[in-house]
Amino acid sequence: MEYKVLVAEDERAIASAISYALKREGFNVEMAVNGEDALKKAEAFAPTSSSWGLTII
């Protein structure tokens, strides 16, 4: 099974670090840097899990 994770975080450096770590562990990762983008990507990407920054909600 392929695990897909959506990382939604408005701090690009934090989002990149989380995405990098998850990709190294074999996850398929999509990154969003604002709430609107995150909602669009969640619908299109259909992640198995997601990580949301608190201020983005």
Mean pLDDT: 89
Q: Which regions have little confidence, pLDDT < 50, spanning 5+ residues?
A: none
| Biggest sheet strand line-up | 2-1-3
The Cα radius of gyration reads 10 Å
**What does the main sheet amount to?**
3 strands, parallel
Distance between the termini: 29 Å
Binned, the helix content reads 40-55%
Beta fraction: 15-25%
What is the count of helical runs?
Answer: 2
User: Given the helix and strand composition, which structural class is it?
Assistant: alpha/beta
* Count of β-strands: 3
**Envelope shape:** flat
> What is the helix/strand order?
EHEHE
Written account of the structure:
Helix 1 links the parallel strand 1 and strand 2. The protein has two helices and three strands, in the order E-H-E-H-E. With 57 residues, the protein is an alpha/beta fold.
Please name the defining characteristics of this protein.
flat, 3 strands, three-stranded parallel beta sheet, 57 residues
Summarize the structure.
With 57 residues, this protein is of the alpha/beta class. 42% of the residues lie in helices and 25% in strands. The chain is flat.
Show the helix and strand layout:
Elements: E1 4-8, H1 12-24, E2 28-32, H2 35-45, E3 49-52
